[in-house]
Structure to design on (409 residues):
């Protein structure tokens, strides 16, 4: 992999290399038909090197010429001691390219194994981790079904959308666990399981943002018709979510040395943050609406309670974004390589608790402040009373005459 420095890294003065920098340099000598290697750093002096073709020398490997100007060599690195464990990187430098234009064709075949497992030390727990969260999501879906059946009179369409989100989450985690299981056994993923995972992952992402936008806009809870600006939010969110998931698939399937990896990863991060920023607008608009409605006599108590819950919902969304996008990333670059799986653990745990909070706050129950109807004449002091039947989403408007009445917001 070319790093585009002004000077080839293989020609650096070895005496000036920091002691904490541990590396093994392989320099191809085409004239003598060998690959010279040098160990730098105390951590790698005991590292075992071997080759499958010819007996290895003390400081060189055989460089075989398979055809005119076509060379090959192989080596095996064996980590036999605990102090040799770590995160290893392989870089390729074309020193001739610094002096003049030099074209080359490089083919690298790398086989990495931890015993009989092809996953890295930090990825080995992931199949069990994803399987566990798939089971937990399924349990939440079953609990949500029980809640919907017990409170049928208070169920809205948004509640069924939340159920679909839980099932999409369950399938996504299950396919991801199976995919990693095959990677651990065979060193590569099965295309069918990978495709199923990407499809359900895309569906889960779209359903999550649709649910947050609809809840934030107060659909079914404050109003039954989306405004024009709410529809514009959907017109922005849905294409961006598709783009974010496509970018995620591309950089996950690319190697870090591939120029596409960095490009699409930056696109994913940018679009993902934009999506989470946009979904906050409907929540802010609902908070403003409730603030204005709470000033109207007769509806202050109910609207103030809804206002407090919407403010809390806004804070929870911000905390969820901050934790899953910033704190988890800082955790990833801080923990040792063997605990890199904790990034996924904390992200999925935060997502699970976010689902639980949203489900509890917007549960279809008679004591839910979001669904509470006026209980007294003082609270219901209005000309028109709108009664909604959730089962078929029909609306009936009742008229009554009363002095000093107020219009329904």
């Amino acid at each position: 992999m070319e790093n585009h420095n002004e000077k080839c890294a293989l020609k650096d003065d070895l005496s000036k290399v920091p002691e904490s920098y541990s590396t093994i340099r392989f320099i191809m000598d085409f004239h003598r038909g060998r690959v010279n290697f040098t160990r730098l750093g105390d951590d790698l002096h005991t590292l075992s090197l071997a080759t499958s073709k010819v007996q290895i020398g003390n400081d060189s490997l055989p460089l075989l010429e398979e055809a005119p100007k076509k060379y090959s060599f192989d080596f095996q690195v064996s980590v036999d001691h605990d102090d040799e464990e770590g995160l290893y990187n392989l870089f390729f430098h074309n020193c001739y390219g610094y002096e003049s234009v030099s074209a080359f064709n490089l083919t690298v075949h790398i086989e990495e194994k931890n015993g009989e497992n092809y996953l890295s030390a930090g990825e080995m727990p992931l199949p069990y981790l994803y399987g566990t969260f798939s089971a937990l999501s399924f349990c939440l879906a079953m609990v949500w079904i029980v809640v919907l059946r017990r409170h049928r009179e208070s169920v809205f369409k948004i509640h069924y959308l939340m159920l679909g989100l839980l099932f999409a989450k369950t399938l996504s985690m299950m396919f991801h666990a199976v995919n990693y299981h095959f990677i651990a056994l065979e060193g590569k993923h099965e295309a069918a399981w990978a495709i199923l995972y990407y499809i359900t992952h895309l569906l889960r992402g779209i359903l999550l943002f649709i649910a947050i936008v609809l809840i934030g806009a107060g659909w079914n809870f404050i109003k039954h018709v989306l405004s024009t600006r709410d529809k514009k939010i959907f017109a922005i969110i849905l294409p961006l979510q598709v783009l974010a998931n496509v970018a995620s698939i591309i950089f996950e399937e690319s190697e870090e040395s591939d120029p596409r990896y960095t490009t699409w990863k930056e696109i994913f991060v940018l679009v993902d943050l934009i999506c989470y920023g946009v979904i906050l607008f409907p929540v802010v608009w609902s908070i403003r609406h409730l603030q204005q409605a709470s000033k109207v006599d007769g509806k202050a108590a109910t609207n103030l309670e809804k206002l407090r819950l919407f403010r809390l919902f806004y804070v929870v969304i911000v905390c969820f974004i901050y934790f899953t996008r910033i704190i988890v990333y800082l955790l990833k670059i801080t923990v040792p390589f063997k605990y890199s799986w904790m990034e996924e653990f904390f992200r999925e745990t935060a997502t699970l608790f976010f689902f639980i909070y949203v489900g509890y706050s917007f549960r279809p129950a008679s004591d839910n402040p979001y669904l509470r109807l006026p209980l007294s004449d003082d609270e219901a002091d209005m000309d028109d009373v709108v009664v909604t039947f959730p089962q078929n989403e029909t609306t009936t408007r009742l008229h009554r005459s009363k002095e000093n009445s107020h219009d329904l917001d």
In short: Residues 372-409 have pLDDT under 50 and may be disordered. Residues 6 and 147 are 65 Å apart (CA to CA). The two ends are 62 Å apart (CA to CA). The first strand starts at residue 23 and ends at 29.
